[in-house]
């Protein structure tokens, strides 16, 4: 588990509008990579193109190569549905299915892959996934209650449990803590540190302290001005980016001088 | 001691500050709410008062010389049968059309289709009735014969096949076409409101579009589908002209959908009998109307109950 991601000269469009231009980056397996940058610079768009969620928006498309362990995710004959089963995603706002119980939320993805699972097998999977998301002790007595009754931080961990229940290779996180309080945020950050043993994690964050705390590598995205495409300015080990970045723009951003 | 002080505190809560505009709006909203209840109570009172003579009269004085229950029961059966057929046909179709409009069709086509469906709702029911009797009835003869030949062992298609085609099946199909737009419109509105967040959650788990609809859209739209279906059912139960024109009613209580022996419906029966009725016969018809009123209330209460039962999971919290 945990595969490498290689983007090669990726251009991402909304209709005819070029939103992200010429991104090339290599993400190592079983590491945490943080994507930082000002609003509208295309880091979320880039993240969503990794599991082909970008093209859900009408008119959205991607040019270039994006490889998962050498296999082109945008190659001919590749089913985006299959890609998404390999690459899990956690969204900015917690989004457990409101009509499902906590239990059903966790196995929602598994139900798609494998309709007939034995009851004890799903029980094990639910416990495993909830433990993996550090949520088991809080919800084990109310697995049949709706997921929407949990607190925001618990809901987000439920979403992480749901994502890891299908045993993906990669976990994408789109500002997973921006709607959470500091204590819930800490819980998620601890969890990210544990999850990188098994998964390759890419996280978009606006919080630079968070990027510094959780990530091994950091990519800085920037934009020249409104209407211009966003691009990757530089990517390096997190401590390098935060102490001695090569680019002036990166230094300005991480030191809080703009953005 | 403590209880008395608490009482004093409870007795004099500080008056909340209320703007004049708020007060006017609250008052008019409350007034509108009360008005609906008053109208409903008025209708119920009228029905009961007018039905009373028929309820207390001896069976010999009633039309047909039967008891009131024996007179109304076949009508109730026919009413519910026709409405159920319509609902069974229209609901899945309406959900499918609404899903197509909201999740499959290209935007421009979806808009046109939406208008078209709304337009269907505006067609007067008499037109549907004429269409049913002039076009649909003769057109179903072949189908009815086929159903009778191959599925004749089912009580619904036992035959003998009606030669005019003015059968319960045709009434059901006509009513289905009539209530299709209202169910579609309600379902479409609800499906459009499915949070993007939940749709993306399903897609990101590797759901196909259909699986996404089953995981996110349909559960979210469930109460909307039920409300729409109940609105449609209400219209089907009360539909008068289409039934009166199409159905060749004999008053028989039968599940046979394709014969010329059909139960009438309450509304259809009132429309056909009322012009020639006087005295107690009118009261009898109104008594059947009262029964229809009660059925409609029960249907709506049932729908509410179904929707509320899983409120916890509705996504409204």
TrEMBL record, chain A:
Keywords: ATP-binding, Nucleotide-binding, Translocase, Transport. It comes from Pseudonocardia xinjiangensis. The lineage of its organism: Bacteria, Bacillati, Actinomycetota, Actinomycetes, Pseudonocardiales. It comes from the Bacteria. Residues 5-248 form the ABC transporter domain. PROSITE patterns: ABC_TRANSPORTER_1 (PS00211), ABC_TRANSPORTER_2 (PS50893). This is Phosphate ABC transporter ATP-binding protein. GO terms for molecular function: ATP binding. CDD domains: ABC_PstB_phosphate_transporter. NCBIfam families: 3a0107s01c2. InterPro entries: AAA+_ATPase (IPR003593), ABC_transporter-like_ATP-bd (IPR003439), ABC_transporter-like_CS (IPR017871), P-loop_NTPase (IPR027417), PstB-like (IPR005670).
């Amino acid at each position: 588990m945990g595969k490498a991601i290689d983007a090669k000269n990726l251009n991402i469009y909304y209709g005819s509008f070029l939103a992200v231009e010429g991104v090339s980056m290599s993400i190592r397996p079983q590491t945490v990579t943080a994507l930082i940058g000002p609003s509208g610079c295309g880091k979320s768009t880039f993240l969503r193109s990794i599991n082909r969620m970008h093209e859900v928006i009408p008119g959205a498309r991607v040019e270039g190569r994006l490889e998962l362990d050498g296999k082109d995710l945008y190659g001919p004959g590749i089913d985006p549905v299959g890609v998404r089963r390999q690459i899990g995603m956690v969204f900015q706002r917690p989004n457990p299915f409101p009509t499902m119980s906590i239990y059903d939320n966790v196995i929602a993805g598994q139900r798609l892959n494998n309709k007939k699972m034995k009851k004890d097998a799903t029980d094990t999977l639910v416990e495993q996934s909830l433990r993996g998301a550090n949520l088991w002790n809080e919800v084990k007595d109310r697995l049949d209650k709706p997921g929407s009754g949990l607190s925001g931080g618990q809901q987000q961990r439920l979403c992480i449990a749901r994502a890891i229940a299908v045993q993906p290779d990669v976990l994408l996180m789109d500002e997973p803590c921006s709607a959470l309080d500091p204590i819930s945020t800490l819980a998620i950050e601890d969890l990210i540190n544990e999850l990188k043993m098994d998964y390759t994690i890419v996280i978009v964050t606006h919080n630079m302290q968070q990027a510094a705390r959780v990530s091994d590598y950091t990519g800085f995205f920037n934009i020249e001005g409104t209407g211009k495409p966003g691009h990757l300015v530089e990517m390096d080990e997190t401590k390098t980016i935060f102490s001695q970045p090569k680019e002036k723009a990166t230094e300005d951003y991480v030191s809080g001088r703009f953005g | 001691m403590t209880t008395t002080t608490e009482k004093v505190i409870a007795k004099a809560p500080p008056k909340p500050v209320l703007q004049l505009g708020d007060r006017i709006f609250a008052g008019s909203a409350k007034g509108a709410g009360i008005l609906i209840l008053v109208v409903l109570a008025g209708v119920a009172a009228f029905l009961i008062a007018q039905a009373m003579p028929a309820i207390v009269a001896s069976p010999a004085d009633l039309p047909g010389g039967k008891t009131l229950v024996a007179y109304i029961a076949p009508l109730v059966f026919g009413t519910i049968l026709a409405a159920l057929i319509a609902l069974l046909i229209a609901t899945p179709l309406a959900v499918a059309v609404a899903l197509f409009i909201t999740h499959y069709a290209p935007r421009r086509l979806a808009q046109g289709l939406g208008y078209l469906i709304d337009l269907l709702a505006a067609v007067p029911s008499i037109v549907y009735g004429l269409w049913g009797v002039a076009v649909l009835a003769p057109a179903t003869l072949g189908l009815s014969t086929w159903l009778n030949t191959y599925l004749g062992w089912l009580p619904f298609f036992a035959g003998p096949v009606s030669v005019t085609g003015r059968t319960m099946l045709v009434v059901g199909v006509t009513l289905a076409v009539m209530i299709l737009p209202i169910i579609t419109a309600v379902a479409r509105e609800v499906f459009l409101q499915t949070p993007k967040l939940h749709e993306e959650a399903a897609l990101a788990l590797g759901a196909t579009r259909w699986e996404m609809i089953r995981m996110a859209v349909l559960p979210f739209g469930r109460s909307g589908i039920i409300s729409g279906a109940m609105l449609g059912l209400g219209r089907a139960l009360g539909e008068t002209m289409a039934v009166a024109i199409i159905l060749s009613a004999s008053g028989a209580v039968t599940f046979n959908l394709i014969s010329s022996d059909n139960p009438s419906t309450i509304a259809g029966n009132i429309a056909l009998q009322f012009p020639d009725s006087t005295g107690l016969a009118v009261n009898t018809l109104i008594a059947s109307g009262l029964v229809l009123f009660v059925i409609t209330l029960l249907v709506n209460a049932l729908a509410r109950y179904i929707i509320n039962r899983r409120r916890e999971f509705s996504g409204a919290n």
